Amino acid sequence: PVNKPNIIIGDFNSHNTIWGYDSNDSDREAVEGWAASNDLTIRYSSKDKHTFSSARWKRGYNPDLAFVSSQHVSSFERTVGDPIPKSQHRPTALQTKPVVKALESNSIPRFNFRKAKWEEFTQDLDSKITLYRCRSV
Fold it and tell me: Which tens digit of pLDDT belongs to each residue from 90-114?
């Protein structure tokens, strides 16, 4: 469904400079076309660890990709875990980011106690207490 996020994670076995390879191969066109036709966006950061380490070539690659519905892409964060024992792959996870809803405006006052000017508050309170005492006497 359009209003719900689609999440696809897998080993796409294609090379593309977009997801960290030095060059492109013909399979990348198929993956890009598939993602575009399904309105999916890749969740990839060049700062992420490689998802696959080749023992033969002694370097890391990123065949394990994560795609999310384009309208929901900002709601998800991709992380790459530590290597799986006896495997050349690292687990890839998509996590939802916390959703922060705006507070509805109503008559209940909201206070930010960390930003409060406590010195001014106590002085103002002391003066009101003093004024109250003077009036009640």
Answer: 998 888 887 666 556 566 666 677 7
Q: In Å, what is the CA distance from 42 to each residue of 73, 86, 89?
A: 8, 28, 19
pLDDT, position 102: 59
Distance between CA atoms of 134 and 137, rounded to whole angstroms?
5
Residue type present at position 2: V
Structure-block tokens of residue 90? 């690292």
Q: Could you tell me which residues come within 8 angstroms of residue 15 by beta carbon, excluding any fewer than 6 positions away?
A: 21, 23, 24, 25, 27, 28
Q: Which residues contact residue 99 at a Cβ distance below 8 angstroms, ignoring those fewer than 6 apart?
A: 75
